[in-house]
Amino acid sequence: MNQTMKATVATGYGSPEVLQLQVVTRPTPKPNEVLVRVMTSAATTADAMMRTGKPYIARLFVGLFKPKKPISGTGFAGVVEQAGEAVKDFKVGDRVFGETTFGFSSNAEYLTISEDGVILPMPENLDFSEAANFCDGHLTSFNFLIEIAKIEAGQKVLINGASGSLGTSAIQIAKHMGAQVTAVCSGRNIGLVQSLGADQVVDYQQKDFTKSKDSYDFVYDTIGKSSFSACKNILSENGVYLSPVLKFPLLLQMVKTSFFGQKKAKFEATGANKEEKLRGLLSEVLDIYKEGRLKTVIDRQFPLEKVAEAHRYIDSGHKRGNVVIVTS
Question: Cβ atoms within 10 A of the Cβ of 186, count?
Answer without folding.
Answer: 15
